[in-house]
Design goal:
The protein has 315 residues and is mostly helical. The protein has 11 helices and 3 strands, in the order βαααβαααβααααα. It has helices spanning 24-51, 58-75, 78-87, 94-127, 132-135, 138-164, 181-186, 193-226, 231-264, 269-292, 295-313; strands spanning 11-14, 91-93, 172-174. α1 packs parallel to α10 (269-292) and α2 (58-75) packs antiparallel against α10.
């Protein structure tokens, strides 16, 4: 099919998680609940950090950014899926599909980079505790976040432009609940060899690269902890990393599940389930992991909760 045939594409069809009509209300209720909890939980983290001056540190600055990215990440996919279930429609416009794909790549990779930056932050806090606030200055933290946003915006734009060069038949069916890059590329009726090369190269660059950075940071952290003489000091140093380690493990195990299931077969049901874990469950659990294991966050949330009642008591 010639490239000009791509003008025939008006929309794609998202097949969703199940074709069974009786399961749609259950799926709608489940995903609506998870979405609301994700938004509310991550929003609480942002409000707690912003309202408590004691949490205006690099660690919580990155955490609030991670929470904001998680809200945006889930908002790129779940609302559209809920809308399609509610309207009993499976369609998404060609432009809407490309836009959804762009933001899904952008926020997923931004999650990855922020976790890497947070690992470096923990390394500096343990390795150079006396100079921590000097090394991780507000200017450096803001610069790291800004560079991440700019580079990943260009990275996502590259993938989107690569998809725009492909041709598709009208109303192609995507066996997924959102426009996932590899699924869309495999549906192309034109040559997608270059797209596959770029995707695999990007997987190595943006997947293994940040993960290697995290492993390097934690190898240095482990070395520093081993040099601490007291058991209490070792526990205190390690406890500052537990929440981040749990989030990293959850993120990379689910992301690996998506990659392996997609590599095995592009239409497998396991790929869709893995994507749910990666793009829905992980952002849902992140605020719980950080709030339940972090006394500072729990204290800030209590202050934030009681702040209106305290203000009312002031004459």
């Amino acid at each position: 099919m010639e490239t000009s045939d791509s003008t025939q594409v008006s929309r794609f069809l998202l097949l969703g998680l199940s074709k069974e009509a009786e399961l749609q209300p259950l799926i709608f209720g489940l995903f609506l609940s998870m979405y609301l909890i994700t938004v509310f939980g991550n929003l609480l983290i942002i409000l707690a950090v912003s309202s408590d001056s004691h949490l205006h540190t690099p660690m919580y600055f990155f955490l609030s950014n991670l929470s904001f990215v998680d809200i945006c990440f889930t908002s790129t996919t779940i609302p559209k899926m809920l809308w399609n279930i509610q309207t009993q429609s499976k369609g998404i416009t060609y432009e809407g599909c490309i836009t959804q794909m762009y933001f899904h790549i952008f926020f997923a990779e931004l999650d990855d980079i922020l976790l890497t930056v947070m690992a470096y932050d923990r390394y500096v806090a343990i390795r150079h505790p006396l100079h921590y606030m000097v090394i991780m200055s507000p200017q450096l933290c803001e610069l790291l976040v800004l560079i991440s946003w700019v580079l990943l915006a260009l990275y996502s734009l590259l993938h989107s432009l690569m998809v725009l060069r492909l041709s598709f038949c009208p109303e192609m069916q995507i066996p997924h609940f959102f426009c996932e890059l590899s699924q869309v590329v495999q549906l192309a009726s034109s040559d997608n060899f270059l797209n596959n090369i770029v995707m695999h190269f990007a997987t190595v660059l943006m997947g293994i690269g940040p993960f290697a950075g995290i492993l390097y940071s934690y190898s240095k952290i482990a070395s520093c902890i081993c040099k601490i003489s007291s058991a209490q000091g070792k526990y205190k140093a390690f406890s500052t990393c537990v929440s981040h380690l749990l989030v990293v493990s959850l993120f990379y195990f689910t992301a690996l599940g998506v990659y392996l299931s997609s590599a095995a077969t592009h239409t497998s049901h396991s790929s869709t389930i893995a994507s749910v874990m990666y793009s829905v469950v992980t952002p849902l659990l992140n605020p719980f992991i950080y709030s339940l294991r972090n006394q500072d966050i729990k204290g800030a949330l209590k202050k934030f909760y009681f702040m209106p009642s305290l203000k009312d008591q002031i004459p």
